[in-house]
Design goal:
The chain is an alpha/beta fold and 222 residues long. It has one domain: TIM Barrel (Alpha-Beta Barrel), CATH 3.20.20.70. It has an 8-stranded parallel beta sheet with strand order 1-8-7-6-5-4-3-2. α6 links the parallel β7 and β8. The chain is globular. D-xylitol-5-phosphate (DX5) binds next to β2, β8 and α7.
Length: 222
């Protein structure tokens, strides 16, 4: 069953000089969770932020933080982000040697766990681990950078994952990351997603409240 819709602004596109203000601003504009992109210049070409920055957010505000690890390996960072107050930790299955073990590690630290599938990653990596997932995230761009265009084949993939989740009877969120905007959020929701990461579509705009309100009104029609 679909969970309530969540809008997750990705701070990758925020003004890092004013990060605290940016976070307060999107959350008071109606966002549900902060999406936190961790890139290591190894699994992906870009290099971003780590547990220190996560802690600096969670120590000052109680908003949930959705940590998306684009790192290889994964396991050494999991306790660091659990300690830094992450609510969710998601990772890419090909970036860890033992997927089941990494999922167990995340949950053992009291954090919700998820797998992230790149555009070309097949769905069979979900087999055998569904009961250890709190979220499945489909990348609708190749990971590494904000501001890319949504890859349309993600819509079919979302429909397939929605069927898998519903057939399992488990409460697993279905998140989508990359190129999500007010203009395509309704068809993405109609394909089965309930959690929407948006970086440049929110932080790139003048009025965050207006963008988030427009996204919510488009979701109402789904
Ligand atoms: C890409 C990141 C995304 C990115 C989304 O590797 O995982 O979270 O920030 O940015 P937009 O919404 O601009 O595509
Ligand atoms: Zn992300």
């Amino acid at each position: 069953m679909k969970q309530p819709y969540w809008i997750a602004p990705s701070i990758l596109s925020a003004d890092f000089f004013r990060l605290g203000e940016e976070i307060e601003s999107v959350m008071s504009s109606g966002a549900d969770i902060i999406h936190f992109d961790v890139m290591d210049n190894h699994y992906v070409p870009n290099l971003t932020i780590g547990p220190l920055v996560c802690r600096s957010i969670t120590s000052r505000v109680s908003y949930p933080v959705d940590v998306h690890l684009m790192t290889e390996p994964v396991d050494p960072l999991v306790p660091m982000f659990a300690e830094a107050g992450a609510s969710f930790i998601t990772f890419h299955p090909e970036a860890t040697r033992h997927v089941d073990r990494t999922l167990q590690l995340i949950r053992s630290l009291g954090v919700r766990a998820g797998l992230v599938l790149n555009p070309a990653t097949p769905l069979n990596c979900l087999d055998y681990v569904l009961d250890k997932l709190d979220v499945i995230m489909l990348m609708s761009v190749n990971p590494g950078f904000g501001g890319q265009s949504f890859i349309p084949s993600t819509l079919d993939k979302l429909k397939q994952v929605r069927r898998i989740i519903d057939a399992s009877g488990l409460q697993i969120r279905l998140e989508v990351d990359g190129g999500v905007k007010a203009g395509n959020i309704a068809e993405i929701a109609a394909a089965g997603a309930d959690t929407f990461v948006a970086g440049s579509a929110i932080f790139g705009q003048k009025d965050y409240g207006e963008v988030i309100a427009t996204m919510r009104s488009r979701l109402e029609g789904v």
